[in-house]
Design brief:
Blueprint (H helix, E strand, L loop, with lengths): L1 H20 L10 H20 L5 H13 L3 H7 L22 H78 L3 E8 L3 E3 L5 E11 L5 E12 L5 H12 L11 E3 L4 E10 L1 H10 L10 E11 L7 E11 L17 E2 L4 E5 L5 E2 L1
Antiparallel strand pairs: 1-3, 2-3, 2-9, 3-6, 4-5, 4-7, 7-8, 8-10, 8-11
Helix pairs in contact: 1-5
Length: 360
């Protein structure tokens, strides 16, 4: 559109310029015919000279007269001297035109209109640039918002994934708890007298009664019993040692333990032997050294595996106290004097302590 307008304006300006300056090239009145006649005569003379093969006598005569009429060299030298000429003013030359049509107005106001048009175009361009800048800013803000939303979505997705993983673990745990075997310790009773032998040791046989209260088969069921003497050893240290012993991998090909089906009970006997060095230490620095006796507790632990999850060790353990019953009645006493040598089984009580119990 702008190029079309510029082309039209150029054509109109050219036509108007020709109309304005046309009078300057018009012939001057009174001189046009004479000049034409002189030009014709000069042309004829030159043509005659070109065609005349030799100069005529009249021409030679005129040349002699011309040479005779020329001034001498002295007079010519005087005439060649510098002379001052006063010029009052320079003539004023102007080109006047009486053309006052719409083309003249267009020629006069065209540049102003074109400049005004350029101003309008520049203003429109500035407006468009601002709109483009605002659009770029809007798109940048949109992209930034999308990036933040994507980041939040990623974090939310990560949270959902963690929750799904946790839910899967809980589902698996619930399935395991529902269908796995469970070994429960039902009772621990003395199966023999408590005897202090000649080697300074104390020996006691125990009856261990357990049952599979779970919903699947328990295999490799193995018991372990250990003791802690008051004032000599700590039950926490003994418990940690028992756990590690039972979870130690067994050599291949060795089928240790018992197989228990759901609901099946199992009774086994397990001997405990209190070493003489612990008894001696208890009599010297134990909690009941002043009474010449010892007091001890036992920990009973069963380790087993499941046919659903082979290789995973489950354990059930509890702590029990050991005391003697007074023949004539009265409260039980947890102190055993090695000097007595034998404590009958019917006078030995084994009771649940209530701490240290665990099942996994």
């Amino acid at each position: 559109m702008l190029l079309k307008f510029m082309g039209t304006l150029f054509v109109l300006t050219t036509i108007d310029t020709v109309l304005i300056f046309a009078p300057a090239f018009a012939p001057v009145p009174g001189k046009s015919a004479k000049s034409s006649a002189q030009t014709a005569d000069n042309g004829k003379q030159e043509a005659a000279q070109d065609h005349d093969p030799c100069p005529s006598l009249s021409l030679i005569y005129r040349e002699k007269e011309s040479l005779a009429n020329q001034p001498d060299q002295a007079d010519q030298a005087k005439k060649d001297e510098c002379q001052q000429v006063a010029v009052a003013s320079l003539p004023v030359v102007s080109v006047a035109s009486d053309y006052k049509g719409w083309m003249k107005r267009l020629y006069d106001w065209g540049p102003w209109a074109f400049a005004f048009l350029l101003v309008i175009v520049g203003a429109l361009q500035v407006r468009l640039l601002r709109q483009t800048r605002d659009e770029i800013k809007r798109q940048a803000n949109t992209l930034q918002g999308q990036a933040e939303d994507a980041k939040e979505t990623g974090a939310h997705t990560k949270t959902l994934a963690a929750q799904a993983e946790r839910q899967t673990e809980l589902t698996q745990l619930q399935l395991d708890l529902t269908h796995r075997p469970w070994i429960a310790i039902e009772s621990v009773t003395p199966a023999s007298d408590l005897v202090f032998n000649g080697d300074g040791e104390a020996i006691l046989m125990l009856n261990l009664s357990v049952r599979n209260v779970g919903n699947s088969i328990a295999k490799y069921v193995r018991p372990w019993v250990d003791y802690a003497i008051s004032g000599v050893t700590q039950m926490s240290e003994v418990t940690a040692r028992v756990i590690e012993i039972l979870k130690t991998p067994q050599p291949p090909g060795m089928d240790l333990g018992t197989l228990l089906f759901p609901g099946q009970p199992y009774i086994s006997q397990y001997p405990i032997t209190i070493q003489s060095r612990y008894i001696t230490q208890a009599l010297e620095s134990g909690d009941f050294k002043d009474q010449g006796g010892i007091s001890f507790e036992i920990i009973v632990c069963f380790d087993y595996e499941s046919t659903i999850d082979p290789g995973h060790h489950y354990q059930t353990r509890s702590t029990f106290g050991v005391a003697r019953i007074q023949p004539q009645g009265g409260p039980i006493n947890g102190i055993f004097q090695p000097a007595v040598k034998v404590f009958p089984a019917q006078l030995i009580a084994i009771f649940y302590r209530g701490y240290g119990a665990h099942a996994d």
